[in-house]
Amino acid sequence: MALLRTPQGDVPITGDTSDPFYTTYSDSGDIYRVEVWRADATMTAPSSEELESLAEESLQGAGAPSVGEAEESIDLTAVSVPEVSRMVAVRVTGPDSSELSVYDAAGTGATCTTAPVRLTTDVELTALDGSRFMFTSDQPQPSGRAANDWNLYYHRTFIPAAKANSVVCGVFKGDNRTWSTSLSASHRTQVTARIDWAAKKFTMTRLVGTTHRLAEGGFGAASKTASVSGIKITGVSASSTYGRFEITHSVGNPLCSLAGPISYHEVVSMYKTGALSVQGSGVQVPNHEWYAMKANASVRTIQKTTAKDFFCLSVNCGNLQILKSVA
Question: What Pfam families does this protein's entry cite (predicted)?
Answer without folding.
Answer: DUF3238 (PF11579)
